[in-house]
């Protein structure tokens, strides 16, 4: 046995702890924060400090005489400092670092490491804790938790990847979409007509009511060129000229003071949309719904892709016309059997078919993000409409005649043949498919642009986001009139073209 072990054993036996229960001397803390642990116990009137006695160095045979002299000098200096009030009484025995027992009560911090370097607290990021560097165990635990989380959500795209990378990734997915322009694909005839009309309105032809001509010319003649083709007696008036100027002023404030997207939506975008779809505050068949939290249903969302949302939707609201009509009955019937009229289960959109989707961003930023959101949103809507229309597709009944063994003509077994398998020239003439293309609007600050998601894209039966055709701006009065006319045209298209097709192909109503 080494000579120092009997000495240590005798020293431990000579220690007077003052109580038979050392745990009773431990301080308790009500706070969950780490605090520096001491062996000091405090009462209302007195405070006592328990100090472990130093070993008797003179009896330790393992120390040389020079080592003992050094220890004696240190003890003498320390006692002098305490007596003079220069510092607290301290034990020569260093405090043993105690390991936290995570299997015990998490609120019990009595065994905390008192000599550990203070560390910043953990910060919640996206529902996951970042490592606080408090210990290797904490870091390893966090790393293993992160690996498990990533393994569980491996089907989702990383939120840290840029929108441009996510757009490129969507072009590789089987149920993704492509991005291109209107001239890169063969447009359906029904879409060509819409594009031509919007281009005409963007040039200002007949967008200002003739009744606004005098006030417009009086205020704008010295600022801009006046073209008489802008004025038309048949042009509708959604806003007065002073209201147009008020929208321009609000948009200028949002840009100058660098307002966020929500402020643009409240101050500029929603008033413009509401002025068209609710003339005089009266609801109509087409309405606008603010839906920035509407998520795509999992059944229609692209696999291995993040869910995306838009800000506004122009919807069909048949209950504004006839709350107890056949349209409402058909919609409620679909909902009762678990079907949908939209690709989202958002409560505000469950009973109102979406005709036009609108995504807004601040001025001159996030163009790639807007395209990504619109592409994912509308490609999911096309997928839902295609499935719903396929379920409603009529069948051709084959009642051909066959001969039995005796040569007698008998009626063959009746079988239903899906319309998709019938030759194109043998099919009945029908209206365009509801899932052929969907209109959308991407707004970036002042700029409003018309986009389309259609299936006649670069690859067969694969959605493609086509962009873009200018609709108007909120910087000049003429541009605001152009914008109002374009929105009004899309509302008319939704009411007169899209809604009848939707009723027939999705709701099964003639």
UniProtKB/TrEMBL annotation:
InterPro entries named among the record's database cross-references: PDDEXK_12 (IPR046797)
Biased segments, Polar residues type:
21-30, 51-65
**Which positions fall inside the PD-(D/E)XK nuclease-like domain?**
236-499
Region Disordered, residue ranges: 13-166
Q: Where is the composition biased (Low complexity)?
A: 38-50, 140-161
Q: Classify the source by domain of life.
A: Eukaryota
One Pfam family named in its UniProt record: PDDEXK_12
Biased region (Basic and acidic residues) positions are 66-82, 100-113
Q: What is this protein called?
A: PD-(D/E)XK nuclease-like domain-containing protein
State the organism's lineage.
Eukaryota, Fungi, Dikarya, Ascomycota, Pezizomycotina
